[in-house]
Fold these 2 entries.
Entry 1:
Amino acid sequence: MQNALASGSSLGDHLQESEHTTPMLGAANETVCHEVFTNVFGYTEYKGMQKEIFEAAMRGEDVLVVAPTGMGKSVCFQVPAIAAESGVTIVVSPLLALMKNQVAKLRQHDVCVVSMTSETLKQERLEIIEDLSSDYSTTRLLYTTPEKLCTPDFMRSLTPIYQRKRLNRLVVDEAHCISEWGHDFRSEYRRLGEFRLKFPDVSIMALTASATPLVQDDIVRSLKMLPNRLYKVVHPFNRSNLFYEVRYHATTDPILQMEEIFTCINALHQRRNRPSSGIVYCRTRATCDALSQYLRGKGLSARPYHKGVKSSLLDKTLKEWQEGGNGEGGVDVVCATVAFGMGIDKSDVRYIMHYDIPKSIEGYYQETGRGGRDGCPAKCVLFYSREDVVQVKKLVSLSQNRRQITANSVNAPPPSQRAVDSLNALIAYAESTDVCRHVLLCRYFGEVIDAKSAEVAKTYCDKMCDICKYPEKTKRRKLNLSPYEILSFRPAQAQKGSAGDDEDYPVPQVRATTAFHGVGYTSNARPSASGWKANSCNSATRGDNNTCLPQVASTSTVLAPIAAKSNYVGPALLRSRAQGLKRTNSAASSGSAESDSSKRAKVDYSAPSGGVPQKRQTGFRPPFKTPFLKPQPAPLHIPAITSSVLQYIPADEPQSGEEDDQPVNGCDENSSEAPSSSPVELPDREIHLDVATSQKISTTLRNDNFTSTRRALHKIFLNEVDEEDMWERLNLSSSSKDTRISILATAAKELEFSVFVMCASDEGYKRRSATSLNAVKRLGKAQAWRTSGDDEFEDEREIVSTIRRVCQGTKTDGKSRML
Ligand SMILES: Nc1ncnc2c1ncn2[C@@H]1O[C@H](COP(=O)(O)OP(=O)(O)OP(=O)(O)O)[C@@H](O)[C@H]1O
């Protein structure tokens, strides 16, 4: 690496083989880094091992940094990059949003930084390369994506820069994405090793917040970092200012759970006498929408954040959330999928809740790590039910099976069991009531901790988890869980943990020494992911409640009986639940079908409050916002729909380079299973759409959506080829054509209403209706008819369940309930 801040420095021991690099050593470098650190960024004290990392980077060593979220990893590569007198550091970042965020922040500090992504125009690209090759370039950082960096074009364009010795360093941010053992594997990261082959003298820095020893080794190997010039820093994983708690449930009734989340947030607000910033993570978009609506109904400033929301709205939500949490406006709580993750940097987040269990322990650790970045206490609550575990195990098993099938088809080695192991570790964490939660998390990442030593335990926790703070209460609460027997869990095999009898957590069996600078510890390394040992179900490892740890995900778990036994109401059914509430509302109003429908009210997840003024219920005092209660408007009459031909509304394009919370349900118009684009003649029928208190959505749009949905349903259910098969699936093979037409019209009406209740604007309505329509068009696919499985078909499954409900209504109540 070049640095003209000092000249004539000798090479360090680590760099014997490199003639290309001319690293700077000694006080001069230290001084320059310190100047950048204080003058450019305005910091006064180093966090963790920042200083040592700067020094190692300036010596030209390869550096691996493993440090918890919020430690300040970005500065670790930004300071040395800016301190270099010439040359550029290339930063690989997995997300466009993350990249934009960092570039914007650096520009605020007057740092000369550029980015090159799929959004960069060709001319701009050429100009950037020309600038970087020039002797006078002042650009110190170039941000790019792994996909872009690995293109032959990009690599070629770096060659002249390298030859002119102006390529200082490659930085790989979120480096756990490189490892198949990591929780966020990105295949394109795997190719980054090519960089070292092409530019052997350029040093590499990799950074991550969550990497087990196994993942750390994989990162080093994949990037071809040289062991003899590797500086590895593993910061302690413990976040002692986070209070970890698990709330145990027997069922996942959404309304009850939302109420508990509200109570929990409200209690925090009451204690602080003002609102606080927080995040509630949910697995599905539907849950995010429903929960934020519920919380808004209770007077909180809540917004959903997921990939189904328009990007301009996401930006607005993020901005308002960054400003909120102090009682002076803005958004206080974001109900988000994992899309709200990397790059979120707000210091005063006071609570992180998990509505349902995440898919991995690394994910849980990273998400909770968004709390308390200012060092003040923050609360992390995981809502845990074994019914939900069954769901998530199923999802993880399915994607594992998919990977296995892909591996088989290309004769590749079998995929790792990492995802399954990681989920099991999280379940074990949640099921534990004996070992401190801080200790459990840190052990997962390889720290060896003697939890029996009161002193050691205190340094990790000091009553900052439910188990240490109120052990008896935690054990009592756990009795709320459904017994394993009704949930088809198989008991785990006997195997004791190696770190003590108090273990109820899988412990890695092989030890390896990790260079740890600062506190110093020996870490454990897993021989393989499946080397994790499950705990025994004997008396020694039976927890309270006479339970033992659930075992590796079983693909044979059947959900339907569980749902029947435990009243399971999963997140995917939230909208169906909304429909149920709507029906209850409308059932209360008597009269003809027409007057019945005209009196239907908009579904409100705050419905259980029964319209009681929020202040009385919550005890909120100003400055809390209370919901705006409008008088019921006059019923909206929507003109009858006839068989006019209307166009489908096209779905929005997904944004490239951005992380998705769930696969985008793009409608494949070319697919043989997709309906053709020729319009379908609909039989004339007098149909009135459900009305609601809100008149924000234009009647024309609603009519258009209804007609398009109805037409799509006709194409699927009333075409000559598949008609009988489709009705067989609905157990209505003997129904008449007339009944079928009525059922489809009612289903279209229900589907339109479920889109309508979730939207506050025409724009939102258009987006949602497009998604819903695309899902309807995919009902010909078998996956849509399975009771559970693939996230990708979640919307389709919801639609099927709506249609089934309509069919059920037809069978029990006759046609009078329809239309
Ligand atoms: N030495 C320091 N003193 C004070 N604040 C710092 C210091 N270093 C970094 N920060 C601040 O800490 C916050 C977190 O930094 P950064 O985003 O780099 O963390 P991170 O470790 O990369 O977290 P994540 O893994 O979540 O991305 C930022 O607001 C940054 O400005």
Entry 2:
Amino acid sequence: MRYGARDVLDGVDLDVRRGEVLALLGPNGAGKSTTIEILEGFRRRSGGQVSVLGVDPEDASDDWRARVGIVVQSWRDHARWQVGELLEHFARYYPDPRSPGELLDAVGLTAQARQECRLLSGGQRRRLDVALGIIGRPELLFLDEPTTGFDPESRRDFHRLIERLRAAEGMTILLTTHDLAEAERLSDSIAILVGGRLIASGPVAGLAERIQAQAEVRWVQDGVRQSLLTTDPSQAVWELHQEFDGPVPGLEVRRPTLEDTYLGMLRQENA
Ligand SMILES: Nc1ncnc2c1ncn2[C@@H]1O[C@H](COP(=O)(O)OP(=O)(O)OP(=O)(O)O)[C@@H](O)[C@H]1O
């Protein structure tokens, strides 16, 4: 993808299998939304090949659109419509829609069914966006920063909703997020975009190994906190046991999280 003389996506090569959840991570301006919009058929790419459910999104038909669900970053239309009415209205566009009642229940908005959309909180509005995204029983769902602005409880409810949809219907999901814990919880694989290039992609666990993020071993010696970074924490703990000739006071082993891995990759990229 090129805007004017500037490449904003370059050599991005991605495969997503049916039923897989892929999280696209990357700092602001990395090209995540641009990638998603190209895949959704909302943005015309400057070059390269794209196939989504076997079809080039630039030539997509209404039938293809009905197989794809989209939750965009900020949708503020239909402010004066009631939540239930809006769902009834959108349901008419699809051949086999979910019932609005079932949807309201699934996203936890039953109590808001007769409320005007403009009166919903940010998190409630986002849940309505998700309901609109899945109303047509899509095979593939695009979620662009779905939980931005959610409180912890709404976030947890949302994660459960996505897990249910996935387990019940084998939906393929592509999400962008800045929340690494969310990516780790929801996705099978992650792809990391930096400056329009894919710097890594693959299963969540495999990525941690690839940059060999180190585990941190902590303990207390003579009343002073000690810590050690190592790729072999088991060996380090064994050596500490030898040294203490028994239990090691305050022993903790902290494995690298996805966040450590991700920040490690960004550091390597910027070095
Ligand atoms: N219509 C446009 N014309 C010119 N440049 C654009 C246009 N849309 C996006 N860009 C540029 O393309 C780059 C990628 O933007 P994009 O919105 O895809 O990033 P992102 O990874 O989704 O960022 P964020 O995390 O902030 O949402 C940015 O440098 C942006 O300024």
